Amino acid sequence: MKNLVFIIIFIISFTSCKSSKVVKDKNTSTSRQENVQNDADNTLENHVAESETLDNSETSKSIAENIIDYAVQFEGVRYKWGGTTDRGMDCSGLVYESFRAYDITLPRISRDMAKKGEKIVLKDVLRGDLLFFKTGNRRNTINHVGLIVDIRDNDIKFIHATTNNGVIISGLNETYWLKAFFEARRIL
């Protein structure tokens, strides 16, 4: 009964008004005004699908930004194998804690994280995606992860924890990281 009342209210609210929404164009970084009109002819199914699509894209963007902001607060923290606090962090601990802060549970180890989400090509990466590396360990397995925080000047900037410098932001164009790069994955 509650669901039926909700559906009726939902239909009435969308058939009796117009709304407009500012949408940011990803390609030009400028905003444009996009009118979203809901006609009486549209079905409830179309309204729900459209609403869920808008909500999911806005939520994903917000979560990615929040995860990045959370991770960046650890910049400068010293490296500590197995660490997950501001007293010391390793690379997978940084990513694990940053996602966990927003109720997204990932495996604790970078090679297991690399089994989650969707593999993507570098030209399609976005802020909040993960980069995985093989840094010359004897088993030739993924042993390092970084979180993309920015894409600028034809370079992908990512935050990670290194044994020598702790939590830092590096560029994928740096020779060492470009050579060790293995794959990119989207979790959000």
UniProtKB/TrEMBL annotation:
Q: Name one Pfam family in it.
A: NLPC_P60
Residues annotated as coiled-coil are none
Q: Which SUPFAM superfamilies match?
A: Cysteine proteinases
Q: Which Gene3D superfamilies match?
A: endopeptidase domain like (from Nostoc punctiforme)
**What residue stretches are annotated with the NlpC/P60 domain?**
61-188
Q: Which keywords accompany this UniProt record?
A: Hydrolase, Protease, Thiol protease
Q: TM segments? A: none
Q: Which family does it belong to?
A: Belongs to the peptidase C40 family.
Designated name of the protein: C40 family peptidase
